[in-house]
Amino acid sequence: MSVTIITTGGTIDKIYYDAKNDYHIGQPQAPKILARAGVTLDTPLISLFRKDSLDITDEDRALLKKTIEAQSGQKIVITHGTDTMAKTGVYLKGIPGKTIVLMGAMYPAEFRDSDAVFNLGAAVMVAQTMPEGVYIAMNGRVFDPARCVKNVAENRFEEI
């Protein structure tokens, strides 16, 4: 079995640029996270784009959908920024024969106390165990993208 990882950017991949006192989206962190965790599952990586989720357009979502549909594997994990993750999840609903799990992080993976490692591990497990459909794996829970929201004040996802 394999789980294809598609990266789109977001906080999980952000790195700190000291010269500018700012954050920018860097290289995908998922391969490093999985390697450090000793994951032996086949996880092909597709780095689709590197955007903050607030900058993701419907054209980007169409490209993501087309990329998912073109995959021979049925299990897909998408690393995505948290601000528009639910919107992208709703957009991807209806792709037949695929279990699609979106995940992100509230803090960059490079941060010691980031939730990125936990959320990626959860997403990989959800992709392997849930039936075909689209899910969000965040904060130790599995959500329907149409029935969840990011609670900015509490820094977590919640069911609505």
Q: Provide the CATH superfamily.
A: L-asparaginase, N-terminal domain
The level of helicity is 25-40%
Examine the secondary-structure arrangement and name the CATH architecture.
3-Layer(aba) Sandwich
Regions with little confidence, pLDDT below 50 for 5+ residues: none
CATH topology: Rossmann fold
Q: Record the strand order, biggest sheet.
A: 4-1-5-6-7-8
Number of helices: 4
By DSSP, the count of extended strands is 10
- Which band does the percent of strand residues land in? 25-35%
- Distance between the first and last residues' Cα: 33 Å
Shape: globular
Short structural summary:
With 160 residues, the chain is an alpha/beta fold.
Key attributes of the depicted protein:
160 residues, alpha/beta, Rossmann fold, 6-stranded mixed beta sheet, 4 helices, 26% helix
